[in-house]
Amino acid sequence: MTSPQTGPAAVICGLGAVLPHRAVPNEELCAELDTTDEWIRTRTGIRERRIADAGVSTEDLAVAAATQALESSGTNDVHAVVLATTTPDHLMPATAPSVAARLGLTGVAAFDVAAVCTGFVYALAAAAGLITTQTARTVLVVGADRMSQLPAADDRTTRPLFADGAGAVVLRSGTATEPGALGPMVLGSDGAHRDLLIVPHGGHMKMQGPNLFRHAVDRMSAVTRQAVQLAGWRLADVDRIVPHQANARITAAVGRHLTIDADRRVQNIEYVGNTGAASIPLALAQASAGGTLRPGHRVCLTAFGAGLTWGATTVTWPDLKPAAHPHHDTAMERT
Ligand code: UT7
């Protein structure tokens, strides 16, 4: 799918993210699982992850991140809410309408997108479609997940990886040439490989790690190339890739395939783990706050997840204001 060069484009004008307060270091998992800090660090790059308290819902995380993004954008005049999540609070209804209502956006279009760890990129594409078809002028896009609830308590292959968090952006109608305008979107799926990472109804997550790893590297490398090419850039022009944070070794392998060295790869998996659909907006918020992502940078967002699903898009990073009031309550904090 490509964005039209004429007519409205979707432009990022706000960004926010939150993490649960509770940090769980590898050492804490070693007390419960047959694993070591060394194995987790060297095989995944993760040192600790944030885990939401039992009373914190996906809706709570989404509302907190969205509040930050709305403050950053300086507007509450939002016409649609798109929530990417793998962990909706109910089988039905979707979680997005509750998020919208909690934000005082009653009456606006609101729906969930289920594309697992690619969910945020799929949600950006859906939101950009709402803007380019003039269905909505401003759209709130949230990625929120409580992935930590999906593995079995005794599964050492999945429990160290998955964690909780939320991130959000506000998209407004603008022009394709201004900073913050989303470039062409590339999306794909292959359901023939759904068993590589699956949570059966009423069951726990099952993962075929090494096979999934190979698909992740191949798909993220290919989709990054495609999105960069459609944007009219060369890989050498890309200042930052912001990959879904599944495993530091996957990000490194994608970097090797594309000749994008470590200082052009945004990575925050060390202290957040794999937060599903929240992963990319969380990485954006942390990299932007920390100064590794700066206005004018040519950025490629690239994701891969269960399904299988994959997706990528480009953006020239805009000059965004941080939210005025840090979100801080007993359950979670601004990143
Ligand atoms: O977000 C969606 C996308 N997610 C992904 O793409 C995840 C992709 N996969 C991965 O990140 C990696 O495959 C894992 C991190 C899941 C596993 O790393 P690996 O290097 O592929 O390890 P492996 O599964 O090949 O296992 C190597 C060894 C095995 O032992 P043997 O058979 O060699 O004796 C495992 O049983 O490591 C063992 N092992 C562990 N040992 C200590 C597996 N998990 C653990 C553990 N602690 N937590």
List keywords for this structure.
335 residues, alpha+beta, Peroxisomal Thiolase, Chain A, domain 1, 2 domains, 6-stranded mixed sheet, 4-stranded mixed sheet, 30% helix, binds oxa(dethia)-CoA
Description:
The protein has 2 domains: 9-178 and 323-334, Peroxisomal Thiolase, Chain A, domain 1, CATH 3.40.47.10; 186-316, 3-Layer(aba) Sandwich (Peroxisomal Thiolase, Chain A, domain 1). The protein is 30% helix and 24% strand. The protein contains 9 helices and 14 strands. The protein has helices at 26-30, 37-44, 58-73, 96-102, 119-132, 209-230, 248-258, 269-272, 279-290; strands spanning 9-20, 23-25, 48-50, 80-84, 109-113, 138-146, 164-174, 186-189, 197-198, 206-207, 240-243, 298-305, 309-316, 332-334. A 6-stranded mixed β-sheet has the order 5-4-6-7-1-14, with helices on both faces. Strand 12 (298-305) and strand 13 (309-316) form a beta hairpin. Helix 3 crosses helix 4 and helix 6 packs across helix 7. The longest helix is centred in the middle third of the chain and has 22 residues, at 209-230. It is globular. The site of oxa(dethia)-CoA has 22 residues, from helix 2, helix 6 and strand 12.
Summarize the structure.
This protein is 30% helix and 24% strand. It has 335 residues and is an alpha+beta fold.
Secondary structure topology:
Blueprint: E1 9-20, E2 23-25, H1 26-30, H2 37-44, E3 48-50, H3 58-73, E4 80-84, H4 96-102, E5 109-113, H5 119-132, E6 138-146, E7 164-174, E8 186-189, E9 197-198, E10 206-207, H6 209-230, E11 240-243, H7 248-258, H8 269-272, H9 279-290, E12 298-305, E13 309-316, E14 332-334
Parallel strand pairs: 4-5, 4-6, 11-12
Antiparallel strand pairs: 1-7, 1-14, 2-3, 6-7, 8-13, 9-10, 12-13
Helix pairs in contact: 3-4, 6-7
The structure holds oxa(dethia)-CoA.
Oxa(dethia)-CoA (UT7) is lined by residues 35, 39-40, 43-44, 117, 156-157, 160, 197, 209-210, 212-213, 216, 246-247, 250, 274, 304-306.
